[in-house]
Write a structure and sequence with these properties.
3 domains, oxidoreductase, Oxidized Rhodanese, domain 1, four-stranded parallel β-sheet, tRNA processing, oxidoreductase activity, acting on paired donors, with incorporation or reduction of molecular oxygen, Alpha-Beta Plaits, 8 helices, single chain, globular, about 25% strand, Rhodanese-like_dom, alpha/beta, tRNA uridine(34) hydroxylase
């Protein structure tokens, strides 16, 4: 058993004083030596953290002891060490950035547990719809799923017309994402747009891999920590992506080492080292090229942190990182 744990979670539950709770939550994470990214919003909580097993157990117990968060479901994975370099606790308007005019506490798609999803996914009357960004489904997705060429969930309204033919078709629409949080709003939005028979994979790809073996998920699942991608299919795994540089089949994904570019691309290990983690020769000539360490994951450069002000950037301004991690 590995000594560290990685926790992925979210909950839609009103928080009356997000700024005050942000400080309390940050201090809790400091006390437990946790690293990761957490969003606090009036609508709830969303986070991914890593830490030693005992510290993660204490963290989960503390959240479950709060009446607002009793129903949080944690996806728990093992790791050899921290999967984050820093701790970020932010206040945001939403726990997942969508700008969609919906409230998951009022309406959402029917939740399917992993085993229910496994039994339904190949039904001819079922259509799987991926609600993740293009670079995420490029490296891994369910067989036969509909994908959208979108950078984030805010672009979903621009792509709904691509599945307009499913309205009143009698088909079951099952949405899925990494950990379930995007589907809470995406499925609600589809219902608001007149779609019926809308379902969602509860707990997302990660929970499906943990509890149902990950069958028919091709490639690997993109995650928002320094692992970059993780395998989820333990039944019939396959590689569906190719190296951006040489075309060799690979599920290994990096951020381009050029900070100006920073593209998410799949890249084999050999090309990573040969091209210093860059996706093009132009990027390779970037005078501010980041040092490639073999992972293709680069943390934000910060100077200091305080519970009241958060991390400060090089210019002394408070950083405002965006995460769409589940």
């Amino acid at each position: 058993m590995k000594p560290y744990r990685v926790l992925l979670y979210y909950i839609y539950s009103p928080i009356e004083s997000p700024e005050q709770y942000r400080q309390e939550h940050h201090l809790l994470c400091l006390r437990l030596n946790l690293l990761g990214r957490i969003i606090v919003a009036p609508e709830g909580l969303n986070g991914t953290v890593s830490g030693l097993t005992a510290d993660c157990e204490a963290y989960m117990a503390a959240l479950h002891a709060d009446p607002r968060f009793t129903d949080i479901e944690f996806k728990v994975d093992e790791a050899e060490g921290h999967t984050f370099q820093k701790l970020h606790v932010r206040v945001k308007p939403e726990i997942v950035h969508s700008d969609l005019p919906v409230d998951p506490l009022q309406q959402t798609g029917i939740h399917l547990e992993p085993d229910e999803f496994r039994q339904l996914k190949n039904d001819p009357d079922v259509v799987l719809v991926d609600m993740r960004s293009n670079y995420e489904h490029e490296v891994g997705r369910f067989k036969g799923a509909i994908t959208f060429d979108m950078e984030n969930l805010r672009e979903l309204p621009d792509h709904v017309a691509e599945i307009e033919h499913l309205k009143n078709s009698g088909k079951k629409i099952i949405t899925y994402c990494t950990g379930g949080i995007k589907c809470e709003k995406a499925s609600a939005y589809l219902l608001a747009q007149g779609f019926d028979n809308v379902y969602q994979l509860h707990g997302g790809i990660i929970k499906y891999g943990m509890e149902a073996g990950g069958e028919d998920f091709d490639g690997e699942c993109y995650v928002f920590d320094n692992r970059v991608t993780v395998p989820v299919n333990h039944v019939n795994p396959a590689v569906i992506s190719t190296c951006y540089r040489c075309g060799t089949p690979t599920s290994r994904m990096v951020n381009c080492a050029s900070p100006v570019c920073n593209n998410h691309v799949t890249m084999c290990e050999a090309c990573g080292f040969e091209h210093q983690g860059t996706c093009t020769d132009d990027c390779k000539n970037d005078p501010n090229l980041r040092e490639y360490n073999g992972t293709g994951y680069y943390g934000k450069q910060t100077l200091s942190y305080s519970p009241d002000q958060g991390f400060k950037s090089r210019k002394g301004q408070r950083l405002d990182l965006t995460i769409d991690n589940v």
